[in-house]
Amino acid sequence: MLSVEALVVRYPQAREPALNGVTLRAERGALTAIVGPNGSGKSTLVRAMIGRVPVERGSIRVDGQDALTLSRRAFAKRVAVVTQRDEPAFPLLGREYIALGRYAHGGLFRTAQPDDPAVDAAAKRASVTEFLDRRTDQLSGGEWQRLRIARALAQGGEALVLDEPTTFLDIAHEMALFELLADLARGGLAVLLVSHQLNLVARFAGHVVLLHHGKVAAAGTPSAVMQGSILESVYEWPLVVTHDPAVGAPMLVPLRR
Amino acid sequence: MRRLWAAAVIVLVALFVVALAVGPVGIPLHDLWTSEIVRTVRLPRATLALLVGAALGMSGGALQGVLRNGLAEPYLLGVSGGAAVGAVVATMLGLNGPAVTPVAALIGALAAVILVLVIARVGGGRGADPRVLIMAGVVVGAFANAAIMVALASAPADTVRGAVWWMMGSVADARWSAITWLAGYLAVGGAALILWAPEIDALALGDEAAAAIGVDVDRASRRIFLAAATVAAATVAAAGLVGFVGLVVPHIARNGGARAHRAILGASALVGASLVLAADIVARTVRAPADLPLGAITALVGVPFFLSRLRRSV
What we know:
Chain A is of the alpha/beta class. Chain A has a single domain, classed as 3-Layer(aba) Sandwich (Rossmann fold), CATH 3.40.50. Helix content of chain A is 31%, strand content 26%. In chain A, the strands form three sheets. A six-stranded mixed β-sheet of chain A has the order 6-7-8-3-9-10, sandwiched between helices. By secondary structure, chain B is an all-alpha fold. Chain B has a single domain, classed as ABC transporter involved in vitamin B12 uptake, BtuC (Orthogonal Bundle). The A-B interface holds A 12, 47, 50-52, 54, 71-77, 80-93, 96, 100-101, 103-104, 106, 108-109, 111-112, 151-152, 155 and B 64-65, 68-70, 125-127, 195, 197-198, 201-202, 204-209, 211-217, 254, 259-260, 262.
């Protein structure tokens, strides 16, 4: 559904491209994960999708259509992106924040309203109905991340892209978020998740893409990518890959040097 | 919420009536519409004060949203400095007079704003980074102040006195021509800001989040910035520098419960108009028949208010 083909992105004045020929696909009904060390180009890929870094070559496609020719509004209606950070400069109510996700559906004079049924529907899907009338500055980290996902769902697209949504979350909130994303994928969305949590990715994702220095170092099922030799060379740290005793998914254990 | 809007309108109307009735010559309410003093002096003066306040309030409300900063205001972005340079340069070239000075101030203010945008673009890359914009505004403002001081250092005493008075802000010499101009700028610029308010809502989340929900960030922030600056520049051209209104008023609007920017802009227009009207009533009655500088009154009210806000938010 959402595909990236031979994408080359270079920041202004940078000698090396941040992304150098990356190709990947996120299919409907699946959770696809992008992993890789810091600086491997994961966030740059998300920024390229929302047009915040110039694409030098290659393409981003939505159902085969070149996304770079779409307006921001048209893209936002089809692909919802949850960036690494956003925070209202001045606090909003939960429902007002989710309503901002309807921006692309509004017109010149017709704007998204907090009582739009799409807002309640999105809140229900992300299980945030109890935060609808609370202020955004009164939510905990986990609650805020879920509210952001509700805002993205309100955009009404078929693909959801998230850049490290579980940063700063405790185990319970992190698990709940992964469960939510897996549910959304099962419900038919194409979910593309950037994450540092390799062990959770190995349990939840159907397809994993490992980035390294702006290139795809490995891609495939979690067990194909989660190989000790591959991860060790990419992360430049000694580690072993075992299987987690509870569910049998590949599990990475970093060693002490 | 609805009650607060009604209260804001009632306060504004009441202040307008007071502004017409009160002065060295008290005028009974039933004579308001027939009085010559009201028609020729107080009505234009009150109208100008109202428009200046509404314009500065809206400009500040829009800029604080786009720049994601409750300390942003039109004057911080070079509008005041640029306008002052324009006016002083015109005076030095011998081009003074009620028709020329406002135009020169407007040109100066817009030039400064464009300069700020260019500097921010060079310094901050493709996007207009709010922090870089604010720094660029401060730098351009400081440069403008220095230029004014150099220009005034060798100017005759009369020019200096006039320039200083103008820099302190005043609606005392309100003329219908200036009022019409300002009303025109406010109608167009204010309508544009109201129209673009949903984009301000989105931009207040940050550039990347705004882009993610479908806003063309660079274009949207540039045009909102320019509209807000133009509206503020027009007030400077009409009434000189009336500080702190653009800074303080959006905070009052948000305190009253306005969260979406369409509401913030509307409330800021109402509150700003009331604030400047009230300040002008004080300016011309406290030491009547002498006029105190309007900009000094708004600053005297604005600074303590702002400090109290700052204390509460820490």
